């Protein structure tokens, strides 16, 4: 059974930093592209950042470029999102996603971790 478990969310002041982690189990982690999405109240879920299976390529939403960094440790089956210079507009529920086409399409989601940026 595939599980994605996010952690690291919390309350932070504007300008602060947080590191989100997503630990994966039940899958061949290196075969999966990993992404972070977020959903704010009343808004659609949006892609924040993504990284390929080997970690050689990343992409980011324009709104987080230069502030957020996605990385992965395939030995630990974990993907990270380092968030710096946080703004109130970054407040959302952040979700981890794993997606692959190796051996057929598969797509998994975590339960989410709340990030609140407020003074």
Explain the overall architecture.
- With 119 residues, the protein is mainly β.
- 0% of the residues lie in helices and 52% in strands.
- The protein has no helices and eleven strands.
- The strands form two sheets. Strands 2, 4, 5, 6, 9, 10 and 11 form a seven-stranded mixed sheet that branches.
- It is globular.
Descriptors:
119 residues; mainly beta; seven-stranded mixed sheet; four-stranded antiparallel sheet; globular
- Topology as H/E string? EEEEEEEEEEE
Distance between the termini: 40 Å
Tally of DSSP β-strands: 11
Largest sheet: 7 strands, mixed
Low-confidence stretches: none
Shape, please? globular
Averaged pLDDT, please? 96
Oligomer: single chain
Fraction in helix? under 10%
Radius of gyration: 14 Å
State the helix count: 0
Q: What is the SS-derived class?
A: mainly beta
Beta fraction? over 45%
